[in-house]
Amino acid sequence: MICIEGARVYAPHSLGKKNIYIAGEKIIGLSHHQPAKSLEQVIFAEDLIAIPGLVDLHVHITGGGGEAGMMSRSPELSLETMIRAGVTTVAGLLGTDTVTRSLENLLGKARALREEGVSAVIYTGGYDYPSPTLTGNIRRDIFLIQEVHGVKLSLADHRSSYPQSIEIERLLSDVRVAGMLRNKVFQLHVHIGDEEEKLSSLLDIATRRPQLSTHITATHLNRSEAVFADGLALVKAGANMDISTGLSSDNLHVDTLSAEEAVKKYVDLGLPLDQLTLSSDGNGSAAEYNADGTVAAFKISRLDSLLKTFQTLVNKGYLSFSDALALVTAQPAKRLGLAYKGKIAENMDADLVLLRKDLSLYGVMARGKLIYQAGD
Question: How buried is 349 (Cβ within 10 angstroms: 0-12 exposed, 13-18 middle, 19+ buried)?
Fold first, then answer.
């Protein structure tokens, strides 16, 4: 048994100072702060804040890019990069390249990360339609492969396959029914580009078929003011908004909203926070294109942007500590159908991050093991 002693705990809601008791990979209890005795390991955390490990629902774990040839491919996610970002659970997905980056490769990388001591799930599908699959069928992928926790699709992007509305509805039906068979609620996780149609097809579906709207998560919605406006309408229709912390006006468009700006606009409108999440787009490429469609420049999105955005939201007072924390822990875990992630409570997975009072990273525990402490 391990005890984290005397930390100020946010679960994401505030629990005050507690001892957190851990056995194996699980949290087995919390108690009022008192000295821990007869334990294998005690981590003294009197001056620290304990939060759930961050859950990043959009990461290119096998790398992204490739739009400017094979030399422009970004690298695979490393365990060190993940841990130094305070992230203990990732959802991996494919990007533009579904030729040299395969779902088999994605599944293998997710399993490798788990063997290294963290947690990883994946989305089946990709940018192109018909969706690439592992078994030849979306429903079979979701039901038969435990690591599959949703489906990826791309819309309103010059790299997408421009699926028709009925095809998107069928994908959503597959997500819904296959999730029912696993007793989970999964998402069609939709990359949104900046072409003229924006979110029109998703808005139409969410309006006509409200039973499908809760299975829609549209991402990159801070890429422009116009896309963000469509995203707000989509939220009002019952779907979910995901904001990319790796996007900014420095690496995309002049009217790209920073993640914290987008969150503030969302909050100021009084929209439901439980329909909002943040993700990093880690290891993906944010590319700028010339008029002829060639790549002018690109940057690789950083996984640590997720923690930095949380820190900014709290430090600028845009959200309370607990509300900001939920956007990167409990709510993405819920979108992924991960019932034991994103919270600090009895029987939850022992994925924890320890922060100093200035919110800088001090320690990371993943699945009950202390992996990182004070830079080591």
Answer: buried
Can you read off the two tokens belonging to residue 112?
Answer: 């490798």
Q: Using the structure block, give the residue that is written with the tokens 């003011």.
A: 225
| DSSP state letters, 278-298 | EE--BT-EEEEE-TTS-EEEE
The answer to whether residue 184 scores a pLDDT higher than 80 is yes
Q: What's the whole-model pTM score?
A: 0.95
Measured CA to CA, the distance from residue 159 to residue 152 in angstroms comes to 14
Q: How many CB atoms lie within 10 A of CB 75?
A: 13
Distance between CA atoms of 88 and 53, rounded to whole angstroms? Answer: 5
User: What phi, psi does 86 have (nearest 5°)?
Assistant: 75, 15
Start-end of H helices in the chain? 79-84, 103-116, 138-144, 165-181, 200-208, 210-213, 225-236, 259-268, 305-315, 321-326, 330-335
- Among 95, 78, 100, 48, CA closest to 356: 48
Q: How far is CA 277 from CA 15, 239, 340, 358, in A?
A: 22, 12, 18, 23
Cβ atoms 100, 65 nearer than 8 A = no
Per-residue tokens: 301:
């999105």
Q: Residue 369: what pLDDT? A: 96
C-alpha to C-alpha distance for 142 and 182, rounded to whole angstroms: 8
- Taking all residues of the chain, what is their mean pLDDT, rounded to a whole number? 94
* From 174, 281, 304, 349, active-site residue: 281
Buried b (16+ CB within 10 A) or exposed e, 238-274: bbbbbbbbbbbeebbeeebbbbbbbbbbbeeeeeebe
Position 255 confidence tier, pLDDT thresholds 50, 70, 90: confident
Pairing of strands 14-23, 26-32: antiparallel
- Concerning whether 281 is annotated as a catalytic residue, the answer is yes
d(CA 244, CA 201): 21
- What does the block give as tokens for 130? 């018909």
246 contacts 280 by C-beta, under 8 angstroms: yes
Cβ atoms of residues 252 and 221 within 8 Å: no
For the chain, what percentages of helix, strand and coil (3-state, to nearest 5) are there? 30, 30, 40
